[in-house]
Amino acid sequence: MILRHSSLEGLLSTLSTGARVYVPAKADGVTKFVLYSSSVRPDFSITNTTMPPKDLLFPQTQHMYRYGTDAEGVPYVEPVHDADDVIVFGMRPCDVRSIECMDDVFLTKGFVDVSYQAKRERLLMVAMACTAPAPTCFCNSMGLCPTAAPLADILLRPAGATDASGDTAYLVEAQSEKGQAALAQWESYKATDTSDADFEPVSAAVSCSLKVSMVGVKDKLEAMFDHPIWEQLSKKCITCGTCTFVCPTCHCFDISQENRLSEGTRFRCWDSCMFTAYTEMAGGHNPRASKSARVRQRFMHKLCFFEQRYGKTLCVGCGRCVEKCPVALDITCLIDQIGAADVAY
Amino acid sequence: MPVNEAPTASAATAATAATAATAFEPTILAFCCHWCTYSGADLAGLNRMSYPANVRVLRVPCSGRVNPQFVLTALNKGCDGVLVCGCHPGDCHYVSGNYFARRRLMAFKRLLEFTGLEPERFQVRWISGSEAGKFRDTVIEVCDQIRALGPYRSGVSDDVSLNG
Amino acid sequence: MSRIGVFICHCGSNIGATVDVPKVVEAARTLPHVVYADDNKYTCSDPGQQSIRDAIEEHDLDRIVIASCSPRMHELTFRKMLHQTRINPYLLEIANIREQCSWVHKDIEAGTAKAIDLVRMAAAKIDRDTPLYTTTIPVNKRALVIGGGIAGMQAALDIADAGYPVTLVEKEPSLGGKMVMLDKTFPTMDCSACICTPKMAEVGTHPRIEVRTCAEVEKVAGYVGNFEVTIREAPKHVDYELCTGCGLCESKCPTKITSEFDQGLGKRKAIYKPFAQAVPSKPTIDAAHCRKINEGKCGVCEKLCPTGAIRFDDEEKRSTETYGAIIVAIGYQLIDWADLYGEYGGRVASPNVITGLQFERLVNASGPTEGHIQRPSDGTEPKSVVIVKCVGSRDPHKGKAYCSRACCMYGAKHAHQYLDKVPDGRCYVFYMDVRTPGKGYDEFYMNTQRDGAVYLRGRVSKIYEQGGKLVCLGEDTLAGATVQVEADLVVLETAMVPADDADRLGSMLGVTRDKDLWLSEAHPKLRPVETNSGGVYLAGTCQGPKDIPDTVAQASAAAMKVCILFSKDELESNAMIAGSDVGLCNGCGACVAICPYQAVTLEEVTRRENSVMVTRTVSNVNPGLCQGCGACTVACKPGAMDLKGFSDEQIMREVEALCL
Amino acid sequence: MSLSTAEALTDALREEARRLLAEGTVAVVVGWEAGRFPNQTTPAFISDPEQAQRLVYGDYCVNTLAKYALGEKAAGKVAVCVRGCDSRGINRMIADNQLLRDEVYLLGLPCSGMKDPATGSLLMKCRTCTEHDAVTYDVLLGPATAAGHDGASADSSAGDSEHVSDEQRFTAVLGIEEMAPEKRRALFDAAFNKCIRCYACRKSCPCCTCRECFVDQLRAGWQGKQNNLAENRFYNITRVFHIGDRCIECGECERACPMGLPLMALNRKMVKDLKSLFNADDAGMTEENSAALGRYDLGDLEEFM
Hints:
The complex is a heterotetramer of chains A (345), B (164), C (660) and D (305). In chain C, 28% of the residues lie in helices and 25% in strands. Chain C is an alpha/beta fold and 660 residues long. The model of chain C has no long low-confidence stretch (mean pLDDT 94). Chain D is α/β, with parallel strands linked by helices. Chain D has two domains: 3-164, no CATH class; 167-294, no CATH class. Chain D is globular. The termini of chain D are far apart. In chain D, 57% of the residues are buried. The model of chain D is unreliable at 146-161 (pLDDT under 50). Classes of the chains: A alpha/beta (345), B alpha/beta (164), C alpha/beta (660), D alpha/beta (305). At the B-C interface, helix 2, helix 3, strand 2, helix 4 and helix 5 of B face helix 1, helix 3, helix 4, helix 5 and helix 18 of C.
């Protein structure tokens, strides 16, 4: 179906009657996916929101269960379920790919994370193809296409050009059964004066200007654990958690609890492999005490270990870390350096 | 299943129940130095003065021991107001503790108010061991002020969703 | 897991009347780690204490909460009780449900709820209590007295008489200080030297007092009971072992210099005793003025000395010794009025404008004029004298805001002495107030007025010379008129200010200085001779202006404090003190700067960190010095510094428990 | 600065770095090198004299480098490129006993304010900078900046035009102070709400040199791990309070913050108060530690009574 930009608002308010709908928007100066309401102005021109949508499945703080002892001293445990129907409207292809990576971690290989699963099952991903990748985007190099998002339930592809009225139109395609079913609610908003056949969506040739070569990177990295490159590269890293927290695929967490008298809550929070405490053991020993070891871990995980385990890189080329790293420790430069490194593989 | 409701309910809760939920009763934490204000509070008892039961005294050796982080914790954990009391400057049992406290807390109070905290919610007073009346009056005054302000909203329960 | 016992006291009906004690007991039983809770009619009574001891045994308690009266009342009682059990006496918290609950709240419901909260706070806190132990530090029973004036001498004598060895350090060549410069002492008009010099002799000959003159304290390390003090002695150039004090050298020395002792009014030699009765009664060579030392010529003294005691090549000596206690008795000096009071002539004032201390030398029989009051300018007897009080005192704009306390009396004394010696003279005293609080003081003042001294209430605004006279312009505020008095001599009763050394010594000893740099006592009312540095005491005017009786009284008081300290072989340190976590400390030193007791120092440690040996600087708390105020804990950003018994975690737990 | 100035300074910097490394005076030189994107620079660590030509200096050297001295000093003496902010950071760390002056060799560089590579406009942190040029250095490469920043006061006149008045420096603080309390609360609640606690602010701060930050310690009641308004407020206010009397106002925290929190308004609130209340010195101007909360004066204002 074809959807005109001008009818999006109506669609979003209809959708938000049955689900929590998140749209890209700027809130308090930060671009992210914001819960849609009439006061929210979605901005589909944002190429990549500063904060990825991952927290809709994997919140920064996730309460897991409450526990305690009751008045008779009998212990109890109460799981926390808080999943709602959620629609993410306007995800970029890289963000969709990041969910694919998170699915690998939280749902496959026999390890199912119940709270992730609960949210994931109630998530509808509405993707939006990119027309103008940002200078920091490099998803092509990571094997993605800016105009395709295979895992999305519904894909919106804008027209290659704005039509005479100045109103952008989108080609809407369901890519899953869930998406197909969801489209029923959309019917009343579709443009009736044009048909899919007449529509020329944004070209598949849209491409990122930033390019790196991933050829041999994984294999080289396998041989580079003790390479001096890590020591050099990590010097400028200040070991903040910015890259991990803005990364759509970083999924590490730390479980802790807060107690009050005889009850408490167990929760998990995002953690970052850049933090010293990430690997610190109870006795105080830290197997990854040095900055270089932590920097190595992060990039190894992104470009090597994840691929070994799940067959894809854990970097989707969204460029968020490239943009936000306060010291410009740029993963694309690192990939270039690995490519240039004289390492047999 | 919730636990321990009746016996461990806080005074504020109990007091609220007593007045049939008509009025908000604040929980106020008072850090009092052992040497001056704590003994002033004891003297108020000795003289059978009367003041609202909303205040809970937490004894510290010196007002210089009061870490501003304690104040933030108290507000986060559910106190509606925090009072720090110590010896008058010049009378510190430990020579200079309250001079340091005075500087720290002056700066800290301004910082809290800068971020929007009502000035009444965090106050500092110097109350000597003989100023039982001042202790009572301070408690009454602070309690009235905070009762008028209503409960403090720390945002501890507002889970921050980054997207939303 | 701790095993807490909670004991709620009824205190007869003191608590029971407005707190439902059984309900508090019920609530206490539900608290985490509370394995036993009970009430007691009177917990502090023998049966009450016994029931706690029994419960500790019976229920295997490892810490206890007592909800009763204020900890200021019975904390020590209950700690002593725990001494008789296997529980560490510091594993005790008291919930104050009497003074701060039952006695101030009339509503039983609110009172009970608050009592429950207080018990819950105490239980939360005690859950994180750890056993605390006092440590003992040895006491070196030797005292150091700094300053050989009347205060230092009195303190040294008292301590030595009590049986302890004393070292007395005096920076001048003789003991005696300011008192020995005085002619007579008010109000009794005893001859000052007559009562001071016997003390000097007693100190000089006391078997347990070692006197070091021309000496200064250079460095102090350590703490109460264990001070390491470095003393520097300037060269005297005379071997006191050989010198007999015959005085031949002094009489033949060709160099004459202005005498410090005579306040610039007389002369002395380059090899000299400051005054006849000096102790030690042996001369010193003033190297700055000695011809032999400076020009290589002369050497008369060396040639004449019958015992060969002269040592031109003498050098300064340093020694470091251990003392258990230090008394600071460095006295005062007079304010340098000339810079502050240009209207009195300032630096170019007439020589006939003198200070009270100069007057003392003028009127003294062994002074430069042999007791004849003469004008310094021409040696004539002044027929009119103006005495100006409060020069530099009570004058915040030019001098000091405080009252120097002794000047009213010695101003009256000077008027009396002048009128006594010059019966036809006229004496005017300009004053702001006359303050005579002391035994016989006001009578003395009244007598001076009867002697003929004219008291004019007001400040002198200008003094200038005219026709060989000094014209004093001032105001008589009682008459409401300006007055002009012509005088032959003007005596300025100038303010006392701290000795030059006070600031340096104060910072070395960790004794705070007040805004005027007087050394501060630990408490203005209750600890007047102690300082905030353990083992350091104050005597005399270094603490603030005072007269001789007060100085002597304070000196004896300080000596008594030292004797009390020395009556023990070991000192028990406070158990509730700060301690630093070496692992967290980054050695920034914020705690060092903030500690009023100089208890925190930075030191290097070498330790294994993450499998590597590392040497770093970290802070260290001296348990002998720390008083447990906790100011350092707040200065410590990473929370490495914590206070035992009031730890961050304990306080946080209390806060949390309160908010449930 | 003009292109020719930048080039001349870059040449001087490379030459000095090469010399220092070749002569063995220093083990490493910390400066900037070009990044991937136009005008982008990134911190550079040069230990081989042959690599000195990688160093650049110009209008886009946005990183304040001081804190790198701590990480590099183990290898030997560290040469650090310093402007006002970097040098004050070095002084600050010396005052905090984290660094010895002898462990660093400071290459002073003139600065007329750095620009945002994305927009070409003067960085926020440079607009309110009071000290452009290094306050301490071992060698000065190029003349001190005579003219002001390229921003508002640029080219006004030669001479002392670089002075940023307290009014300019505290503009943001004054603006917030004037707001109604509810508005201030709303402003900071929104800011604290969006904080993701990545700790880039503390990691970039030359005053944050604790071995283990309070937030990393699992202490009951201290700093909770959850991300919510209350905990985020606790973190942000405590961070300010921990560094407020030592803040050198380099603005790195705010620049590093990926979420755009008004961190310098918070820092400067304390700087301003301590200055007006206790006559506090600007931090990092000397190696002395004059942190206003580490001392007191008997005559301090009494408002608590």
